[in-house]
Specification:
About 10% of the residues lie in helices and about 45% in strands. By secondary structure, it is mostly beta strands. The strands form 4 sheets. Strands 1, 4, 5, 10, 11, 12, 13, 14, 17, 18 and 20 form an 11-stranded antiparallel beta sheet that branches. The chain has a 4-stranded mixed beta sheet with strand order 2-3-8-7, with no helix packed on it. A hairpin with a 2-residue loop joins strand 13 and strand 14.
C-alpha cells in the first residue's frame, strides 16, 4: 500500500501561439447569443493576444494505491486533487450574459442589440478552483513467456509525462518511450499481457471568477464557459486490451453525465445537455513480429498495420431548451462534425 501527499506551486507563461498568432477575422461565424436567445451570424476575431499574464497554479494531491491480492497485479487506487489557479489563461469562452458583463469591451452590438462582433482572443480570468476524486481499479496479467524482471512489474501508460508523474507513487520509475523506437518495440514484445481498468471521476468543485468583484460561476451548477455546457459531475473511463506476439487490440469506453446551463434568457430558457457514451476500438499488428521477427525482411521491420473505429455507436451530445427544441448552434453535428470515423493506417519506421 502506498500513500501519497504532495503540494506543487508553479507559474506558467502563456504559450507562444496565444501571444503571437496572426489575427484572423471570420465573418458570419454562427454563435448562440444567450442574452437574446438566438443564433447570431457575427464577426469573430481570433489570433494572438500579447496582454495575458502568467498563470499561477497550486495543486494539492492525496493518493492511495493498494494491491489487495498478493501475486496478482490488481491495483486499487484513489486520488483527490485540488487545484487553484490565479489568472488562468483561457481561450475565449461561451457568449453568456455573465461573460459579456465581465468583458464588455470584447463585444460589439448594433442599435437593435444584435451581436455584430466578438473579440475571441485568449484572456485571463481572475481565479479558478477545481477539486475531483478519481478512484477505480486496474488488472494486468502477463501472457506467455515474459522476462522474470517484468513479470511482477506493473506497467501503465499515460498521455503525457506530467500525468504519469502525478499518478505515480514516490520512488516509481517513469520512463517516457517514443512510439516506434527500438525501445518501444522491445517493451511491446516483452509485455505481452491482458489488461482491464475501470475508473470513476467525481468532480467535486469547478468554480471560475471572471474578474474581481463579480459573482463566482459554478460550472457544476448551471454556469458554462464553453459549448459543451459546463462541467460534467461524473465521468467513467473503462478500457480493456490484449497484446501478444505483435498483435494487439484495445477497446475504451468513456461515459459523461449530463449537465444544464441555467438562465440562458430569451426564448431558449435553460439548456439541458444529455449524457454521452463513446466507445473506441483499435486493432494493430507489428508485421515484422508476425513474419520472421529478427529475421524478417528489412521492408517489414518497423511496419505496423492499424485498424480503428472512433465513436463506434456514433453518439453525440444532445441539447434541448425548455420547449424541447435544439438551438441551431447546438445541433449534434455542429458540436461533433465527425461522429463515427473508421481508419486504416500503415506506418513504416525507417
Amino acid at each position: 500500500m502506498n500513500l501519497v501527499a504532495s503540494f506543487t506551486s508553479e507559474q506558467s507563461a502563456p504559450p507562444i501561439e496565444q501571444l503571437g498568432a496572426p489575427l484572423l477575422a471570420t465573418r458570419n461565424a454562427r454563435t448562440f447569443d444567450f442574452a437574446r436567445g438566438e443564433v447570431a451570424d457575427s464577426e469573430w476575431i481570433s489570433g494572438g493576444n500579447p496582454d495575458p499574464r502568467a498563470e499561477k497554479r497550486r495543486t494539492v494531491r492525496f493518493g492511495l494505491n493498494a494491491k489487495p491480492l498478493a501475486g496478482t497485479d490488481l491495483t486499487v487506487s484513489a486520488d483527490y486533487v485540488s487545484t487553484r489557479i490565479n489568472e488562468p489563461i483561457v481561450e475565449f469562452p461561451l457568449v453568456t450574459p455573465a461573460i459579456e458583463g465581465a468583458f464588455p469591451e470584447r463585444f460589439t452590438r448594433g442599435a437593435n442589440g444584435q451581436l455584430l462582433q466578438i473579440d475571441g482572443r485568449p484572456l485571463n480570468f481572475a481565479k479558478s478552483a477545481r477539486k475531483h476524486l478519481r478512484w477505480g481499479a486496474s488488472y494486468v496479467r502477463p501472457i506467455g513467456a515474459v522476462e522474470p524482471w517484468l513479470k511482477s512489474t506493473p506497467m501503465r501508460t499515460y498521455s503525457n509525462e506530467a500525468e504519469a508523474r502525478a499518478a505515480a507513487a514516490p520512488g516509481t520509475m517513469v520512463a517516457m518511450v517514443q512510439p516506434g523506437t527500438a525501445m518501444a518495440r522491445r517493451l511491446e514484445n516483452l509485455s505481452s499481457r491482458l489488461y482491464f481498468s475501470l475508473y470513476h471521476i467525481w468532480q467535486l468543485q469547478d468554480d471560475v471568477l471572471l474578474r474581481d468583484g463579480l459573482p463566482v460561476l459554478d460550472l457544476l451548477d448551471g454556469s458554462a464557459i464553453d459549448l459543451l455546457g459546463g462541467t460534467r459531475r461524473h465521468r467513467v473511463e473503462a478500457q480493456a486490451g490484449i497484446f501478444n506476439k505483435g498483435l494487439g487490440a484495445r477497446a475504451t469506453l468513456d461515459w459523461q453525465s449530463g449537465t444544464r446551463v441555467r438562465g440562458a434568457g430569451g426564448k431558449a430558457g435553460d439548456l439541458a445537455f444529455s449524457d454521452r457514451t463513446a466507445v473506441n476500438i483499435q486493432l494493430f499488428a507489428n508485421l515484422a513480429d508476425r513474419f520472421g521477427g529478427t529475421e524478417a525482411p528489412d521492408w517489414l521491420k518497423g511496419t505496423r498495420l492499424t485498424f480503428a473505429i472512433t465513436n463506434l455507436f456514433n453518439t453525440r451530445f444532445r441539447v434541448r431548451d425548455r420547449a424541447g427544441a435544439t438551438p441551431l448552434s447546438y445541433q449534434p453535428t455542429f458540436l461533433d462534425p465527425i461522429g463515427r470515423s473508421v481508419s486504416l493506417g500503415l506506418r513504416k519506421i525507417f
